[in-house]
Amino acid sequence: PKTGDPNLNKWQLENSLVMSWLLNTMNNEIGENFMYYDTTKEMWDTVKETYSNMDNMSVIFEIKSILHDLQQGDFSVTEYFNSLSRHWHQLDIYKYIQWSCTEDKKYKELVEKDRIYKFLLGLNIELDEVWGRILGTKPLKTIQEVFLEVRREESKRKVMLGKSSVALSIEGSIMATRGN
After folding, report:
1. Is 156 helix (H, G, I), strand (E, B) or coil?
2. Which helix (H) or strand (E) covers residue 104, if one does?
3. Are residues 46 and 67 both part of a single domain?
4. Half-sphere CA count of 35, side-chain side, radius 13 A
5. pLDDT for 117-172, tens place per residue?
6. pTM greater than the 0.70 cutoff
7. Same domain (yes/no): 163, 85
8. Of 70, 85, 87, 146, which has the highest C-beta tally within 10 A?
């Protein structure tokens, strides 16, 4: 508002309030650079221009590199899947596309299949039987359904291994008490 506008005081108060909210969300090193802007819009536009990573090819490359190398390893299936999902969501943010027609739906289905393949390929070898079953289903399940099936298999294996470990330790204890 211009000087003399009856809403100027209210606007200045609200502008200062929003600016303080923005500054309070920034770490100190970054916030110090934006303390002296006159308007929230000016501050926001500068922050967006300075720190926005939209269409930042190096960030997309970094995320794709992490996804390429990501394997289950010592992670549980849930931890592995959550890590993949986090990186896929980050990638989706940087590669934002407006989906609007049937061709877009087909592309989205291809992306989903690629994610299923990546998830399955990164699983530990002891779960190869379950991904063989999954890949044999027509039509291929969603990534969430695939995750659920693999997680169930992991849980089943843990229970089975847990029981066999307990049985072995009991059998060993019995033999030890008999003196065998």
Report:
1. helix
2. helix 102-121
3. no
4. 8
5. 999 999 999 998 898 899 888 888 899 999 999 999 999 988 888 754 444 444 55
6. no
7. yes
8. 146
Q: Is 5 helix (H, G, I), strand (E, B) or coil?
A: coil
Whole domain around residue 69: which residue ranges? 57-175
DSSP 55: T
Asked if residue 1 is part of any domain, the answer here is no
Which residue shows structure tokens 């200062």?
16
Distance CA 53, CA 59 (A): 7
Task: Locate 6 and state its tokens.
Answer: 């009856």
Residue among 63, 107, 110, 58 at smallest CA distance from 89: 63
Tokens standing for 3?
A: 């000087």
Q: How far apart are CA 116 and CA 66, in angstroms?
A: 16
Q: b/e string for 34-58 if b means 16 or more Cβ within 10 A?
A: beebeebeebeeebeeeeeeeeeee
Of residues 65 and 4, more confidently modeled = 65
Please give the tally of structural domains in the chain.
2
The string over 72-92, giving b where at least 16 C-beta atoms fall within 10 Å of a residue's C-beta and e elsewhere, is beeeebeebbebbeebbebbe
Give the gyration radius of the chain's Cα atoms: 27
**Boundary of a domain, candidates 51, 68, 83:** 51
Residue with tokens 């720190």: 51
